[in-house]
Amino acid sequence: MPSTGPHSLRDMPHPLAGSSSEEAVGGDSTPSPDLLMARSFGDKDLILPNGGTPAGTSSPASSSSLLNRLQLDDDIDGETRDLFVVVDDPKKHVCTMETYITYRITTKSTRVEFDLPEYSVRRRYQDFDWLRSKLEESQPTHLIPPLPEKFVVKGVVDRFSEEFVETRRKALDKFLKRITDHPVLSFNEHFNIFLTAKDLNIYKKQGIALLTRMGESVKHVTGGYKLRTRPLEFAAIGDYLDTFALKLGTIDRIAQRIIKEEIEYLVELREYGPVYSTWSALEGELAEPLEGVSACIGNCSTALEELTDDMTEDFLPVLREYILYSDSMKSVLKKRDQVQAEYEAKLEAVALRKEDRPKVPVDVEKCQDRMECFNADLKADMERWQNNKRQDFRQLLMGMADKNIQYYEKCLMAWESIIPLLQEKQEAK
Amino acid sequence: MEQGPPDPERQLQPAPLEPLGRSEAGLGVAVDEEAEGAGEEGSGGDTMTHNNFWLKKIEISVSEAEKRTGRNAMNMQETYTAYLIETRSVEHTDGQSVLTDSLWRRYSEFELLRNYLLVYYPHIVVPPLPEKRAEFVWHKLSADNMDPDFVERRRIGLENFLLRIASHPILCRDKIFYLFLTQEGNWKETVNETGFQLKADSRLKALNATFRVKNPDKRFTDLKHYSDELQSVISHLLRVRARVADRLYGVYKVHGNYGRVFSEWSAIEKEMGDGLQSAGHHMDVYASSIDDILEDEEHYADQLKEYLFYAEALRAVCRKHELMQYDLEIAAQDLASKKQQCEELATGTVRTFSLKGMTTKLFGQETPEQREARIKVLEEQINEGEQQLKSKNLEGREFVKNAWADIERFKEQKNRDLKEALISYAVMQISMCKKGIQVWTNAKECFSKM
User: Fold this and answer.
1) Fewer CB under 10 Å: which end of chain A, C or N?
2) How many C-beta atoms surround the C-beta of residue B250 within 10 A?
């Protein structure tokens, strides 16, 4: 994995150059000097036993975070965006071997990496999974947005139900939008392939071959050095993520429980309203008021159902996404630790031999560069993520408040409307 | 409905001179009214106090409840709740009320009063007592008889019971009721002296006994049917409402968890921290608001419960009518058969097969003297039976007239009360919605600052 890492680091200040990192998957793109350069770097990486970073390819942290910020601002007004991706139109495919859903992915872009202004392809969940692992592989220093969980409790959730497919479609759409909004990831060539290739399977097979070829170097790095101490700021991020995930997990449980309670409440309300109707059939003068109350409870039930539907569809998935996001973040953090540990180990080795060699060897310097790049990327992504998170949660929680307000307003209207009915009758009498 | 502390409108008015359907049972002592079961045969000497008392405007309240321990008839230790009944007269020109009586009664004494009223006023829909044991409660509510909330709700219910009697055109003049409010000691003995227990028709108590009435009064059968339906629909309503309350409680209380977790989460956030923290506070407010909401709703449930028990009172009147009709038909039947026998004896023909006819045939004819004597006895019996039937008819008509008048009164009261209850229920719901909107608007404000 780290062998492909440096490319992204190099790509960062020049996003337009990042269309390719491996010849195998770069076939579709227009050849360019950048691509050739990338290819040569790529080859070099593959033969480096420890996946060292070529010196001088790193970018200063400030530029990447500045870019992030600019990009973030762009997202807000949406005017300068040059890549738009939409996931829609889920379709069920029934084959002899399996049944699955594909989603249509429509891409519109003015970027030079795209030959056509518009693409439309169909992808299934597996393909998204492939994209994500490719991104993780090729951009190890970046935070890759999470995919919705693959895990489905069989029998409990109907994978092909309209609700499930729609929830998943929304999550997949969000996943691609997050990549699209990212200054680095959006230029990743796997992403490009995913959006444009007619037949993704060709690339998927190549990917496997590549992985086996690289197996050794990946293994080498993950074999691991022990990190002495996490720098304070990353330790803080780690702690933050632990607490964040914990709190979000609690919120998720609370939200689910509320929905469960509300659904049970709804069941009772559905029985409660008609009792007033039954009663009204016995009465003369009271018939109308009782019928009014019955209708009113009916209206409140409908409003409650809308509330629970909205919360299930809009609230829970966002929470889930952020829980998974914090996992992604943690895994990037771990990778960073690994790189630092590697650097520390090398430095230590040098220190032991210091008398022999007064100068720090090149590969240790490379390793330091790699670590610093990683740190810079991670910090930038964390900052982006924090900003997104703040916006998303503000929107999410305000949405929750809004839905509840709307619910109460509907009920209020229903109850207020029957008051005149009750009073009028009394005065008329 | 008519609960809570007495307000000026609830002050007792002197009974009208012509109470509904009981014009002959005026203020005077009506000793000859036993046939109708009227209960105003109290010792004549008290009539003056009686009248004076009721011509005043008075206020009745059950102002306190107290837990007591004593020994029961079996000399066993028992704990019970006593209720303080206060009566105030407001005859003074300045409108100020003066405490005239205050005494303690326990639930069983209220029960005794009601049982007495049921016997003496079978044609009246006697106001029901609040439940002896908490029913249709949702899980957060205690079903313990000594629970302060239950005792308080029962106190209100008992007060309401007394106010209902006091505002009833006929019941309000009852001597025993008056003594219930004014005479602490010996009251039980006085009640028992009326012999109401002897008058009680045990057949009325046999719950499942049905009397096959040939010519039922459709109005009463309809009313009985209505009472059954009313009882079943209200009890269903109360059951479901208790479950609705349970669930609603759950929905609100689970939101309270947001309060805690938002506050904990806010500790690790920078920009979002303040907004989360204060939103958490609003979630706490939201969660605790349900306690008051459901407490108010319990009052609505009590109002419905009163009518659940009223259904039983309504049925009691119907049963009494049924029984009278039954007695009437039996008497008519008896008279008819006697008349037939008499005719048979007179003409010497036996139209129907009977044991008597068989014996006459087997053992020969009786002498004309014997026959004359038997005819005479039968004629006397027929005479008597006719008188009885006439009085039963009269009694029945009277009962129907009075009962129906009270039922009409009850229906009006019911429509008025339940409409009021429904309005107050709707108002409760409105206030709950407004509270909800307020809390969520506050929370939204906090979220928007994140």
Assistant:
1) C
2) 20
Residue A367 class from Cβ within 10 Å (0-12 exposed, 13-18 middle, 19+ buried)? buried
Amino acid at A139: Q
CATH top class, domain B201-349+365-450: mainly alpha
Write the CB contacts of A16 (distance below 8 Å, at least 6 apart in sequence): A34, A111, A112, A113, A187
Fold annotation for B1-200:
PX Domain (3.30.1520)
CB contact under 8 A, B437 and A247: no
B187's tokens: 């009251």
Q: Helices B175-182 and B47-55 sit at what angle, rounded to 10 degrees?
A: 70
Q: For residue range A74-94, list pLDDT tens digits in order.
A: 444 445 678 999 999 999 988
Residues from chain B contacting residue A426 (CB–CB below 8 Å): 416, 419-420
**A106: buried, middle or exposed (CB in 10 Å: 19+, 13-18, 0-12)?**
middle
Q: A17, A192 in Cβ contact below 8 A?
A: no
DSSP readout, B387-438? HHHHHHHHHHHHHHHHHHHHHHHHHHHHHHHHHHHHHHHHHHHHHHHHHHHH
A236 touches chain B (CB under 8 A): no
Put simply, the chain B residues between 244 and 263 with a CB less than 8 A from any chain A CB are: 244, 246-248, 250-251, 254-255, 257-258, 261
| ipTM for the complex shown | 0.80
Task: State how far the Cα of B247 lies from the Cα of A260, in Å rounded to an integer.
Answer: 10
Contacts of A10 (CB under 8 A, 6+ apart): A17, A18, A38, A41, A57, A58, A59
Q: Cα–Cα distance between B247 and B439 in angstroms, integer?
A: 20
DSSP letters, B169-221, are TTGGG-HHHHHHHH--TTHHHHHHHTTHHHHS-HHHH-TT-----SS--HHHH
Structure tokens at A145: 């947005």
The CATH architecture to which A54-200 belongs is 2-Layer Sandwich (3.30)
Instruction: Tell me which residues of chain B, numbers 262 to 301, contact chain A at a CB-CB cutoff of 8 Å.
Output: 264-265, 267-268, 271-272, 275, 279
**Chain B residues lying within 8 Å of A235, measured CB to CB:** none
- Ranges of CATH 3.30.1520.10 domains, chain A: 54-200
Q: Which amino acid is at A404?
A: N
CA distance B148 to B157: 14
State the alpha helices, DSSP H only, in A182-286: 189-196, 200-222, 232-280
Interface contact flag, B250 A261, Cβ < 8 Å: yes
Residues of A138-153 as b/e, b for ≥16 C-beta within 10 angstroms? bbbbbbbbbbbeeeee
**Among candidates A292, A289, A311, which has minimal Cα distance to A300?**
A292
CA distance B122 to chain A (A): 24
Shortest distance between the Cα of A378 and any Cα of chain B, in A, equals: 19
The residues near B135 (Cβ < 8 Å, ≥ 6 apart) are: B238, B305
- Minimal-distance CA residue of chain B relative to A259: B251
Q: Where are the domains of chain B?
A: 1-200, 201-349+365-450
- Tell me the CATH architecture of domain A239-428: Up-down Bundle (1.20)
What is the pLDDT at residue B42?
A: 38
Pairwise CA distance, residues B192 & B190, whole Å: 5
Ranges for all domains in chain A classified under CATH 1.20.1270.60: 239-428
Task: Report mean pLDDT in 10-residue bins for chain B, 450 residues.
Answer: 41 36 34 37 40 59 84 77 86 64 89 92 94 77 72 91 92 89 85 80 60 81 93 96 94 95 92 92 95 92 95 91 88 89 76 58 67 85 90 91 94 94 95 96 93
Rounded to whole angstroms, the Cα distance separating B228 from B207 reads 13
Residue of A nearest to B429 (CA): A415
